[in-house]
């Protein structure tokens, strides 16, 4: 083998390895953060959508009732 043939074979194998690495990285579907934006994966249209039904607008009804009862009790004790 000549030195020139060995060098071109190494160059070809390095180029193929880089191309394969690029293809592997480009084909993965993960979220990326770019300039403060979270961008979706290329497969976001095929993702299963999770549905969370809306809950009550006021999330603390028991606490509000307890505060109202405490205020009424305090007001009654002042009289």
Automatic annotation (TrEMBL):
Keywords, comma-separated and alphabetical: Signal
> Which segment of the chain is annotated as a signal peptide?
1-26
Task: Quote the protein name from its UniProt record.
Answer: Uncharacterized protein
Species name for this entry? Rubripirellula obstinata
């Amino acid at each position: 083998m000549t030195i020139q043939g060995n060098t071109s074979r190494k160059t070809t194998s390095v180029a193929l390895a880089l191309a394969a690495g690029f293809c592997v990285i480009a084909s993965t579907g993960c979220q990326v953060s770019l300039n403060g934006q979270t961008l979706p994966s290329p497969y976001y249209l095929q993702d299963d959508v999770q549905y969370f039904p809306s809950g009550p607008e006021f999330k603390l009804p028991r606490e509000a009732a307890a505060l109202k009862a405490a205020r009424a009790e305090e007001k009654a004790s002042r009289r």
